[in-house]
Amino acid sequence: MKRILVAGEINVDLVFRDCHAFPLPGKEVLADDFVMTPGSSSMICAMGLARLGNPVAFVGWAGMDSWGDYCVAALRDAGIDTTGILRDETLRTGVTTSLSTAQDRALVTFTGATATLSADDISDEWLQAFDHLHISSYYLQRALRPGCRDLFARARLQGLTTSLDPGFDPDERWGDELFETLDEVDLFLPNDVELLGVTGKTSLMDGLHRLADRRARTVVKRGSQGSATFDGENLLAGPAYPMTSVESTGAGDSFNAGFIHAWLRQQSLIDCLRWGGACGSLSTRGVGGTTCQADAAEVLALIEAVP
Description:
Elements (H helix, E strand, L loop, with lengths): L3 E4 L3 E9 L11 E9 L1 H11 L4 E8 L2 H12 L3 E8 L5 E7 L4 E6 L13 H4 L4 E4 L12 H10 L3 E4 L12 H5 L5 E2 L3 H8 L4 H8 L5 E5 L5 E5 L2 E5 L12 H14 L4 H14 L13 H10 L2
């Protein structure tokens, strides 16, 4: 099996589900459910990959605090190698609070140590131990972002394949330096909103055409509409799997795990899209991004039941 290194952010999610209303200044509201789960796009993807049976290691920064202890323990309990996690008592681990009602959701995030990891923290000697490098949250990892292209280039020289999920740019500036980075990447995994932000286009097809001349294969996650990528010059659509959804946090990151899992095993593009879609859908069965991630047997059962 391919050895996977995930380089990314570490934070915990505090999920308040079925709030009776959103809180107003000076008021208190009740929630019908609560769960504390490992958060961050990088952690959710790493744990999804491990759940599918892949050997995974994680590199990132966390504070010397209880949130950091919780996240490192969660990764370790998932079978992930945590020897690459760096900790510092001057840092605080990030926290996201999610408040959801039946109609909508609101998030409050303290990024903490998210912007601390840099490309210099990942040596060539460290890369040599792996076969694939995945990075999520390009726009949040502000210390990693300037050296991201060089890190991917170094990984390619070491023989690794690579993947990148940009995440959302909270400043909505997007920028164009990402285009050059994509020439060092094998898989680019935005959702449809991120694709349009990155490319400055207003439609899925225009966004995909804008990136068609880059080295990276772009795979777009479209939620209930499935997924899409170009197969040569034609649009290849991946299925959306019907599921009674409890909560959708991290579904796109679980999609990443499923797609990468199949892609590393050299499965066909449509099968990679099926694995991604199944993993994303199955992850919505519970509250939080990691509580109900699928194993390989569950994914195969869903794909066979809904071809």
